[in-house]
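User: Sequence recovery, please. Input:
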């Protein structure tokens, strides 16, 4: 894919990153990680039960990991654009369909390779 072809994807990825960072700042109350925000939130109140507190903390860590993975995927896609390899499947080297890239611009695999990966995980 040429540099000219990637402009719209780059804009989409940058907008996606900006939206995610804005949402995270709003949810967390600033530029701190979810775990730090959770510790501040739960540190000042008496939990209903230890199990509930542990469950809520576990959820916070899971959400934090997912959000960080999203940001990492966006950063990696932007790096692939800069390297000139964006839109190429990392598994088989085939071009990734434009419809797939528009739906998920951070994707690294063509649909066939993604299907194989998901079936192998089952």
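Assistant: Recovered sequence (122 residues):
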């Amino acid at each position: 894919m040429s540099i000219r072809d990637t402009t719209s994807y780059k804009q989409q990825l940058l907008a996606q990153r900006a939206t995610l960072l804005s949402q995270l700042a709003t949810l967390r109350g600033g530029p701190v990680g979810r775990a730090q925000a959770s510790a501040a939130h739960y540190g000042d109140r008496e939990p209903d039960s230890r199990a509930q507190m542990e469950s809520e903390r576990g959820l916070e860590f899971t959400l934090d990991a997912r959000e960080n993975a999203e940001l990492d995927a966006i950063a990696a896609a932007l790096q692939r654009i800069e390297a000139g390899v964006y839109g190429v499947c990392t598994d088989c080297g085939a071009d990734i369909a434009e419809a797939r890239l528009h739906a998920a611009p951070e994707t690294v695999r063509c649909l066939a390779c993604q299907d194989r990966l998901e079936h192998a995980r089952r």
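Residues 10 and 78 are 7 Å apart (CA to CA).
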